Amino acid sequence: xxxxxxxxxxxxxxxxxxxxxxxxxLPKYQQQQGHVCKVVMPMHRKTFLYENExxxxxxxxxxxxxxxxxxxxxxxxxxxxxxxxxCVEVPGLLDRENIYGYEDDTFRYLCFQVAVLEWMNxxxxxxxxxxxxxxxxALIPFMMQHCxxxxxxxxxxxxxxxHNAEYQGWMEWKYAGLLPAWDTWxxxxxxxxxxxxxxxxxxxxxxxxxxxxxxxxxxIMQQSKGLESLIRNEAAKCSGIINGVDYTVWNPExxxxxxxxxxxxxxxxxxxxxxxxxxxxxxxxxxLPLIVFIGRLVHEKAADLLVPAIQQxxxxxxxxxxxxxxxxGDPAVEQQLTAMNEPHAGYYNSRIAYNExxxxxxxxxxxxxxxxxxxxxxxxxxxYAMRYGTVPMVRKTGGLKDTVIDYEDEGGYGITFEQxxxxxxVHALQRALILYGNKTKLQELRKRMMKINNSWxxxxxxxxxxxxx
Length: 469
Description:
469 residues, alpha/beta, Rossmann fold, 2 domains, nine-stranded mixed sheet, six-stranded parallel sheet, 17 strands
């Protein structure tokens, strides 16, 4: 089977979150299982672009509205990711440093999708499956089926994966006129609440829709910024598949980013050495429990609750711990977190940045990982933490609810709480301190977590079964 993944992100080329991790891993494991997998993405000017060898495989021009655009498709030559990687360059649009954040992002990603289809339309054959990810590529199923120029592609089976329904790519109707000529009788497939909604269009037009956890699928049927009724109506072709972890990247026994490698047999000693390194670097006490937050500092991650929750916990008598934050996002939250560094020196610190190497060390050295998310379609951080024997402290939502069982329940290993509130977070912190005091129980939970198989091998099989159906 030949499978084409179309995405805005792919780790390690360009990544802001879980989307990049999934697209960097799923195709590799599908390739290992005997299929031909290709990933196509914009040519972001990131370090990966300059550190690897590329060849030009396609050059063309295409029109959007009255404007003519030049398109170049380049391929990474050495197959360093374990699958064929292609990047799309449209000068001035798809050759910028950042993945998102430009005023013309709507136009840029519309251009990206047209460029991908123009390239595929020039092939001497057609792939078996086109797998599109989030709204940045969700118009492709519609265009394959209803743009007159792409009749060659109209019978290709398509899959849409929703990594985050919060972002839908809404655009004014004037943008529909920039698509290659299409059957205007089908305008209703593009429309949702009087706007062109790429994510809604993908849900309508893809042969199958997946979300990144069963729990998240149920949640977006009730709350998804206006798409609730559509998702319920299309439920028969929707399913939830939990994301996996790439164990070649996230493995405490081989991870080159951490100070001391370890496995289940020496997890206590290994974590202790990595914790000492972290505490030395950030002026923390290695004798105290170390709780960390790793991720985007945005509303959906409940990052705005970190400062009040930590301060409230510090005010409780005999509630003593270390807290370390790594992330970036909302400037106001960044400022609040940074402002805590000095008054709570010795017990708290933060690094406002995206730092892949430091995140690995934090998973390896921390005792607990805090995830109070308001929205968490799947969550990978809790899976990474479990792989490194770090107890996840999670709000019961989306994929967190699907993947973390409270340690007081049968077979459990994490700490769970109901609401994204400071009170619930503080209560979880207090439970973590009690658990930390029970070294025997903590060690038992660490080994239990590390035995869980969250690898991409099984998840890749789940997707392949969908394709074959």
